[in-house]
Design a protein that fits this description.
The protein is mainly α. The chain contains two helices and no strands. Helix 1 runs antiparallel to helix 2. The chain is rod-shaped and about 115 Å long. The relative contact order is 0.14.
Length: about 130
């Protein structure tokens, strides 16, 4: 029974670490997205304020905008995947926690039953010894 509790404890810690890792990955992706959004805004502001809106420079700016937009689209996809993964890891961590609590309760009850059985056996043995 102790082996089971130890294993469930290790599984619970592992699942909690995986959940934390998923959350940090999600936060990292959100920071990347914020940075790319800032870059995209800067490119549009540059296009609006300068002569870059016309001529050969406009083509380069358009390519840069498309590249940024592709990165943003990929980040949105990665964020969705990371969000689902973090949610799944959180669910697994909670299930591991519940399994550990249930196993600890079973262990405690088993120990109490064993102690009660020993008390009953001792009481019967004393009664049998005193009646002889």
């Amino acid at each position: 029974m102790n082996k089971r509790l130890d294993a469930l404890t290790r599984i619970g810690r592992f699942q909690a670490l995986m959940r934390d890792l998923g959350r940090s990955r999600l936060h990292s992706l959100e920071r990347q997205q914020a940075g790319l959004n800032d870059d995209l805004k800067a490119v549009f502001q540059t296009l609006e304020s300068d002569q870059l809106a016309y001529g050969p420079q406009a083509g380069l700016a358009a390519r840069h905008i498309r590249a940024l937009q592709r990165k943003l689209d990929q980040l949105v996809h990665d964020q969705d995947a990371a969000r689902l993964s973090a949610l799944a890891q959180g669910t697994r961590a909670k299930l591991a926690e519940l399994a550990l609590e249930a196993a600890a309760l079973d262990h405690r009850r088993h120990k109490e039953r064993k102690e009660l059985a020993e008390l009953i056996e001792r009481a019967i043995a004393r009664r049998g010894a005193s009646s002889t």
